[in-house]
Automatic annotation (TrEMBL):
The keyword Nucleotidyltransferase does not apply. SUPFAM superfamilies: WRKY DNA-binding domain. PROSITE patterns: WRKY (PS50811). GO terms for cellular component: nucleus. Gene3D superfamilies: WRKY domain (2.20.25.80). Residues 73-94 are annotated as: Disordered. Residues 113-181 form the WRKY domain. The lineage of its organism: Eukaryota, Viridiplantae, Streptophyta, Embryophyta, Tracheophyta. Keywords: DNA-binding, Nucleus, Transcription, Transcription regulation. It comes from the Eukaryota. Residues 75-92 have a biased composition (Polar residues). One of its GO terms (molecular function) is DNA-binding transcription factor activity. The keyword DNA-binding applies. This is WRKY domain-containing protein.
Length: 319
DNA sequence: AGGATTTGACCAAT
DNA sequence: ATTGGTCAAATCCT
């Protein structure tokens, strides 16, 4: 099998996986402590220590990911264009281009299944829907909103594969080459890199709902439609983003190397439950992300960090 | 009015 | 011939 990480050393991948495994182990221990009814002060101290270790694992892994263009899953391809067969589009007039397209060949994919439609942080534009043979539910086709403005080739397909309980399959194709960051409200991440594991501050706007609202003119009631990005949501975090898009600057949006404070993240909040998905800008198109869930109840704060998602993306690849 | 979604048509792959 | 992926006009929403 060819290396899953072209342009990236296997030692880096190994470090990422080890960091994730470490994090998972720390999380497991933390869960044990939390589940004990009477932990006392000792348990609190132990829990705090584990949280610190978990955050360290996050930071170390993110720094590795940030330092290189990690590609995680699928079959490597030399360029986005290589994902498509050569089309036979000869006419240049708009009207004559109808039906003229480059059909996707076997390309780099990342398949994800989940029971709910979690916003992956990218701006998608739906361009088609198709009833697939022997499938109960139609398949929905999405392309990156910035496909034409920034020539971003990323696309995805979403399909409901089960109703009760609901299960959705999302297949990602290609990488995001666009410079627009995932939708964020307002994020202040006081980096744990300074060693103070308790100094993580997450600030977000509760009014922004990143879940998928039902669209009134979506003809498929079983499939919620994607929330469209708003200009304000992007500008909140990168005030000059619009100017940069127009000037085609290539560097402005990139956070400084290894600067975790600028790592983009998305948040979902419902009731007392909040999920933060932190993405590395270099790999967010690869579907690599860390999921940190916090649940607040009265005076208690529970923190769970889900490394399973990350590890799943690395499964099947040998170092 | 501008932008996003819907949906039938078109085309390539099988 | 059939099927899946994409295009683009029509439609809808903000």
């Amino acid at each position: 099998m060819e290396s899953p990480l072209p342009g990236n050393s296997s030692s880096d991948l190994k470090m990422v996986i080890e960091g994730l495994i470490r994090g998972r182990e720390f999380t497991r221990r933390l869960k044990e402590i939390i589940n004990k009814p009477l932990g006392g002060e000792v348990a609190t101290i132990m829990a705090e220590g584990l949280v610190g270790k978990i955050m360290d694992s996050f930071s170390e892994t993110l720094s590795v990911i940030n330092s290189d263009d990690v590609r995680v899953v699928g079959t490597p391809s030399s360029s986005p264009e290589d994902n498509y067969s050569s089309g036979s589009c000869k006419s240049s007039t708009l009207k004559d281009r109808r039906g003229c397209y480059k059909r996707r060949k076997t390309s780099e994919t990342n398949i994800k299944e989940s029971s709910d439609l979690v916003d992956d942080g990218h701006a998608w534009r739906k361009y088609g829907q198709k009833q697939i043979l022997h499938a109960t539910y139609p398949r929905h086709y999405f392309r990156c909103t910035h496909k034409y403005v920034q020539k971003c080739q990323a696309s995805k397909q979403m399909q409901k594969i089960q109703d009760n309980p609901p299960l959705y399959r999302t297949t990602y194709y290609g990488h995001h080459t666009c410079r627009a960051f995932p939708r964020v409200s307002q994020i202040i991440l006081d980096s744990p890199m300074d060693g103070d594991s308790n100094s993580v501050l997450l600030s977000f706007d509760q009014n922004v709902n990143h879940n998928y609202p039902l669209n009134s003119y979506n003809n498929d009631p079983t499939f919620p439609s994607i929330k469209q990005e708003t200009k304000d949501e992007v500008l909140n975090f990168y005030p000059k983003i619009e100017d940069q898009i127009q000037s085609s600057s290539s560097d402005y949006f990139l956070p400084a190397a290894n600067d975790d404070r600028l790592t983009p993240a998305t948040f979902e909040a419902s009731g007392s439950h909040m999920t933060a998905v932190v993405l590395s800008p270099d790999v967010m198109s690869s579907g690599v992300y860390f999921s940190c869930t916090t649940t607040t109840s009265n005076d208690n704060l529970e923190i769970g960090i889900d490394f399973e998602e990350c590890l799943c993306n690395f499964e099947g690849y040998s170092l």
